[in-house]
Write a structure and sequence with these properties.
Blueprint (H helix, E strand, L loop, with lengths): L16 H37 L20 H13 L10 E4 L6 E3 L1 H21 L8 H21 L7 H17 L18 H29 L12 H47 L3 H32 L3 H19 L7
Helix pairs in contact: 1-4, 2-7, 3-5, 5-8, 6-7, 6-8, 7-8
């Protein structure tokens, strides 16, 4: 007799809890992916409309009534277009406005800081809106929020294992905020209207994010391993029990790791700033050179993907640095012994059977 199961009529099949949960997950995934695609297409349509119905000819920043087409040669026209219409943000220009006090203590806001505060408030309000009042039958925004958080959780657990579970919120916070900062620079008017500029196109903002991440995973390392346990990763004096040579080599490796700890915030900040600001410059120059639609729109879609990837890289590296900080040398030795035993087991010959 065959052990194959008889075919079941799907329509008349009993409704099991597991099947209902699986169906709701699939439905939520389809709705959320469709929402994300609609958002990206809408962003492109908005910018396309701004390009079509905006100023018909680039103007001179010094003389707004004069068109750039009257500037003369090709080089002058391109420079006029880039500087007059697109308004590329300078990475280190801090035009601060003093809003309180004239003495030693002054409070000032830059254009990137104003944009960052506004975007943070908007993102925070949206997250509170989609997470309050959860229903058994989720609606549109609840579907999207659950799908997005489940995707970030799966990515975190896939990259860091079970130890990354408690750090999923910090990973999600970095990813969502940086993605919003990156995509804000692609909105029409950002960088042209006063006090607006993509936050991550400013090195000061990316350095601040990197320093916050650096202090956070240093704190987690000291909290989990203690002062002595965490510092032993950089000053492994215990290796001298295996000999002077082993101790000296371990001390050299520890000092190299100590130097690399202070390099981490620099690499995090420079990578994010360079890619975002470089993308804005490339998009502006290509638009000025072509004066068309197809090439800028294609590059615009590529820039959307690039900014998404950069936000994911920053959040993932932060998560990996946290997991590296809380890992003790005993865990490393245990993993090394397990890998050694596994290699020895594979090298053993298989006993012949009679």
């Amino acid at each position: 007799m065959s052990n194959d199961r008889a075919p079941v009529d799907v329509q008349n099949a009993p409704a099991e809890p597991d099947d209902q949960i699986e169906f709701s997950d699939d439905k939520r995934s389809r709705i959320s992916q469709r929402t994300l695609i609609i958002a990206i297409v809408g962003l492109i349509v908005i910018n396309l409309g701004a390009l079509l119905f905006g100023p018909t000819a680039p103007f001179d920043a010094d003389q707004p009534e004069q068109a750039c087409l009257e500037a003369g040669g090709l080089t002058e026209t391109i420079n006029c277009t880039v500087s007059g219409t697109l308004h590329l943000p300078a990475p280190h220009v801090l035009e601060a406005t003093v809003i309180a006090g004239e003495g030693p203590l002054q409070i000032s806001l830059t254009d990137t800081l104003v944009t960052m505060i506004a975007i943070t408030i908007i993102v925070g309000f949206f997250l509170v809106l989609v997470t309050r009042g959860k229903k058994d039958v989720p609606g549109f925004f609840q579907n999207f929020a659950e799908w997005a958080y489940e995707s970030m959780s799966s990515w975190s657990l896939g990259m860091g294992g079970s130890q990354a579970a408690r750090y999923i919120p910090i990973f999600a916070a970095f990813f969502i905020l940086i993605l919003a900062f990156n995509w804000s620079g692609l909105l029409p008017g950002i960088g042209i209207f006063p006090a607006t500029r993509a936050p991550t196109s400013d090195l000061n903002v990316t350095l601040g994010l990197a320093l916050f991440a650096w202090f956070y995973f240093q704190y987690q390392g000291f909290r989990r391993l203690g002062v002595g346990g965490y510092m032993s990763k950089f000053f492994p004096f215990y290796e001298f029990k295996n000999g002077v040579g082993a101790g000296l080599i371990a001390m050299f490796v520890g000092l190299v790791e100590l130097v690399l700890e202070f390099v981490k915030p620099i690499t995090l900040s420079m990578r994010l700033f360079g890619n975002i600001y470089g993308g804005e410059v490339a998009l502006a120059i290509v638009t000025a050179l072509t004066f068309g639609l197809l090439v800028p729109i294609a590059l615009y879609g590529l820039e959307i993907i690039l900014t998404f990837v950069q936000a994911l890289i920053f959040a993932t590296l932060t998560l990996m640095f946290i997991l590296t900080a809380i890992e003790s040398h005993h865990d490393e030795e245990h993993e090394r012994e397990e890998s050694t035993h596994a290699a020895e087991d594979t090298d053993q010959p298989v006993a012949a059977t009679t």
